[in-house]
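Attaching the record inline, Q. Sequence:
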Amino acid sequence: MYRGITVVPAISKLFESVLLQLYGSYLGSDPLQFRFKKNSSCSSALFTFTEAIKYCNNLGSKSLRCILRR
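Structure, as predicted:
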């Protein structure tokens, strides 16, 4: 049985490329987002968290911590 070659993946890649060129500047992420980013790790997220807690404590402010686990 003959199965035809589909062109949908090629068209969707082209469409994705055009959208990225047009709206790429609006699709950035927050600097405090640590997941799924290049040169970012769990240790950098923990460092930022502990430094924020130290900063709040040095100012005499209370800090609220909430940790969500999966």
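The chain has a mean pLDDT of 82. The radius of gyration is 22 Å.

More tomorrow.
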